[in-house]
Amino acid sequence: MVDLTAEIVLFDGFDELDAIGPYEVFQNGSQAGASLETRLVTLAETDLVTASHDLRVEPDGTLGDPDLLLVPGGGWTTANRGVRAAIEDDVLPAAIDDCATAGATVASVCTGAMVLAEAGLLEGRPATTHQVAVDDLESHVADVVDARVVDDGDVLTAGGVTAGIDLALWLLEREFGAEIATAVETEMEHERRGEVVR
After folding, report:
1. What is the pTM of this model?
2. 68 neighbors 96 (Cβ within 8 angstroms)
3. Is 110 a catalytic residue?
4. Which CATH number fits domain 4-197: 3.40.50.880, 3.30.1360.120, 3.40.50.150, 3.60.20.30?
5. Catalytic residue among 20, 87, 95, 110, which?
6. Is 190 helix (H, G, I), strand (E, B) or coil?
7. Tens digit of each residue's pLDDT (9 = 90 or more) over 31-57
């Protein structure tokens, strides 16, 4: 039994690094002693999910009842797949809202913040996203913050792409302590940038 279950929800057109960066951080955190299980999931059963740069990923299963749900971005500037398509069909925002209502902490990387906004989770809260979506996010959020990571308790957002690694390291630190987060940061030869806005 683990203390924290994390699920990263994949959809056609998700940005690879938005999902795989945090996944690697969380997996390394487990190996460093964090009581954490991480799964790559989809909303419906499927054998493969195709990411924005055509990487195909085999998910571990479908969305369960995680303690932490992470939503990657990708595809905001294209309508046929990715975040914009996920918002238009409304299934992903509804599922995210259900997880939040059930008590999950919800986090986004990059334009995944647009899905959280569509789910109603960012109204009146500080948040950040990739620079290409700032104007769009401002129409949903009262307080768009120029930061790599924004922690508003049960909702966290990260800026573009590589900020997802900083987000995941912050979550390791917040949930399991600085020693584990620093060990993972050192192992991955990554240097966090900026401060977490809380």
Report:
1. 0.97
2. no
3. yes
4. 3.40.50.880
5. 110
6. coil
7. 999 999 999 999 999 999 999 999 999
